[in-house]
């Protein structure tokens, strides 16, 4: 009997406030939402304190003003009211509802991205405050989060734009598969080359003192400094078909360096070497000299000490360097377009498709490349974690 | 004569050793005293072969080893902070040097028993060792290679008093029972009283005085009176 009276009351209010403004179907949905709201309100009035009840009603008022009156999103209003009634008693979730309403009403085109990022921000800052109780860190984090936004937002946006079906279609593209394969193989070989030649060099740079060391130390960074196109041009001048070396290779080995796998690898080695060498130097510097001395006094030669002490202890840092170098080699485009447009690596292929067919065509492929790279690196970091645990 | 150093000079980033000459008999327990920054560790490193001296000669058992690399000198070295290899287990640490020479099972057992570390050998890493345990493991590691001379760089530093006594007892029996020659570097005279036979005092890179421990402690040279012990002490 009570509920019937209640429903009649809601229906009465409804007829006055909502019915004149919306069509019948929407009105029915809003009625259902309101019923849930009132039903919940009665429960809160009976069980909880009065100010909580008033807060509950006030939240409804805000929803009504912002979503129904200002944004004129009638159906969304119904959905939000249902959500609001459902989670009002779970306090931790309320801020996320506020963020959701805010992002849907005010930044409609980007609502999903804004909701995800703001939600993540909430989770992080809550954890920071709970663990450190320092408002200063919270303020610093809030300022610093902007830099994270600048990185994540474009990636999140493009990833949420494509449908899973278009991803599958993109992956079935044979040319794309070939390009991806080229990318992985060449960057893998490049990283191996830098590893073999860079690690011994890094050890000497980290451990020994010699004249000209500061000069060499700065020279390592040169590839980061030089614009990519210039790297490509320089390599083309040295290795191109008209250069003495290129002519020699073509005559004797029937091998073209430019526009071939060798050219790709040369460019990738050039641009990604600083990352591995720098990491390896830091890793070797982190190994206590005393440990190497101890090994020497125990009868181990310099080579033996390097293999048994320095290398295992620096392995984690070197592996991180490998991951960085691999990432850099994978993402190289500028110099490859100059020295080896064909065979195409994945980024060059994407650029090529973009020039030919425009944005719509390459979006799914871009997302696919982002996803596969992301998983590759998550896998590599996991591997590194395992390795470190074994060593340390 | 086990060790003989002839007017050794070495300059190394701020520290310097000037005209160091030392002699040490086989089986001796030799104390190298001096304040922090006197160049004691640098001298030990030179004896161990970790640094090449700028000039001067080092003789061990009558052979000139000045140009011999550290791994060929067969000198044990206990580092100040143990320098245990963090990526190896306790057993792998101790057996590290035995890859380069024939292991002597009986000798090793003797060492383990003397140091009382038999039950530590099963530990999989060196992080959970207490200060005293870690020091003993490091000592066992340097002893495992059957060194003809053992160098100790502040062997009691960072240890609690009880561990200090235990380590000192081990060192004493190593010297007295097994006849091991030891050079003990310290800035604390109390550590070596009653154990060391001969001593030298190193001061700002110069040997200020040498002789038997009693001599060095009771009749300090003029240089020491002036600078090391202070006027009141004299």
Structure description:
Helix content of chain A is 83%, strand content 0%. Chain A has 392 residues and is mostly helical. Chain A is elongated, with a radius of gyration of 31 Å. The N and C termini of chain A lie far apart (72 Å). Chain B is α/β, with parallel strands linked by helices and 234 residues long. Chain B has eight helices and ten strands. The longest helix of chain B has 17 residues, at 161-177. The radius of gyration of chain B is 18 Å and the shape is globular. The two termini of chain B are 33 Å apart. In chain B, 43% of the residues are buried. The model of chain B has no long low-confidence stretch (mean pLDDT 87). The chains are: A mainly alpha (392), B alpha/beta (234). Chain A binds chain B through residues 288, 290-291, 293-302, 304, 308-309, 312-313, 391-392, and chain B through 45, 48-50, 69-71, 73-77, 79, 81, 83, 85-87, 96-97, 99-101, 141-142, 145.
Q: Let me know the number of strands of chain B.
A: 10
How helix-rich are the residues of chain A, as a percent range?
Answer: over 70%
Which regions of chain B are unreliable across 5 or more consecutive residues at pLDDT < 50? none
* Form type of chain B: globular
Shape of chain A: elongated
Which class do the helix and strand fractions of chain A yield?
mainly alpha
**Which pair of chains has the greatest number of interface residues, and how are they split between the two chains?**
A-B, 20 and 26 residues
Distance between the termini of chain A: 72 Å
Tell me, rounded to a whole number, the average pLDDT of chain B: 87
Q: Let me know the average pLDDT of chain A.
A: 89
Q: What proportion of the residues of chain B is helical, as a percent range? A: 25-40%
The DSSP helix count of chain B reads 8
Quick structural summary:
The complex is a heterodimer of chains A (392) and B (234). Chain A is an all-alpha fold.
